[in-house]
Amino acid sequence: MGTKKTKQQRDSIFHSEFFPHADALYNFAYHLTYNEEEANDLVQETFMKAYRFIDSYQEGTNSKAWLFKILKNAFINHYRKRAKQPNQVDFEDIVSHHDSDSEKFKGSVDLRQEIFQGMLGDEISNAINSIPVDFKTVILLCDVEGFTYEEIAKIVDIPIGTVRSRLHRARNLLKEKLKDYAGTLGYT
Amino acid sequence: MKRDLKIFGIGGHNCKSVVEKVEILLDGELDKETECQLIKEINKCPSCLEHYAIDDAFKKFVKNKIDRKNCTKDLKDEILNKIKHIDTESEDAIEP
Predict the structure, then answer these.
(1) Which of A43, A168, B82, B87 has the smallest number of Cβ neighbours within 10 A?
(2) How many interface pairs between A and B have CB atoms less than 8 angstroms apart?
(3) Tens of pLDDT along B69-92?
(4) Could you state, in order of their start, the residue ranges of all structural domains in chain A?
(5) Predicted-complex ipTM score
(6) CATH topology for A98-188?
């Protein structure tokens, strides 16, 4: 926990280091939930928490990764709560724990480069949304937001080796989905 | 943290060993020396080169084609308005 900051210092940090990441946070929240209302709530909650606990943030450090970690934790808490309610999404369906995360490299899905031509944003978004959230999360953090393995490890709370193996499995899953899409759309 | 990996065994090119590292290379997670060594190996082998091209295209495809959503102006205004009224003195000090 850092030293207590004045309201002016808090506002200055908030506006210069936190708020510029609003669009990236919203994009991450939207792709985690695929629901605009839930994405709005997650982003609001993230900024409220960040502001309230700004004393534990060290000025000039990696604010984007710090905010993404808050959002990821808020997302998990939301789904834990929802899982306890009847007729809601089953947490196990959303946050799947894959024991095989640490498994060794198993090769890649056979895919031709031409498969990507003609595919639209909607198709890739649908394919990403159809893979388990643990996998979707690492793809969004690495390929969409450009975080390093070390940053992803901190955001998701997993070892760097698991980031690497999870990314590999996530990409293979996504390639399989895209291959299926391409087949149904006649791209192959 | 850059990953310094021993990528090649004694005795030359090994496709499996090269292909295993292509994603790490494209993610920018290899140190400079290993990166140069791996690129040389990729260029030696048409099969590895094809694998690299596909993974490269795939990574760019995900980044560029995903339907990017931005925070609306209304949501930004709402957040800023709430921030203005937060009384940090009365908050419990709990880590986020």
Answers:
(1) B87
(2) 124
(3) 999 999 999 999 999 888 655 554
(4) 1-95, 98-188
(5) 0.81
(6) Arc Repressor Mutant, subunit A (1.10.10)
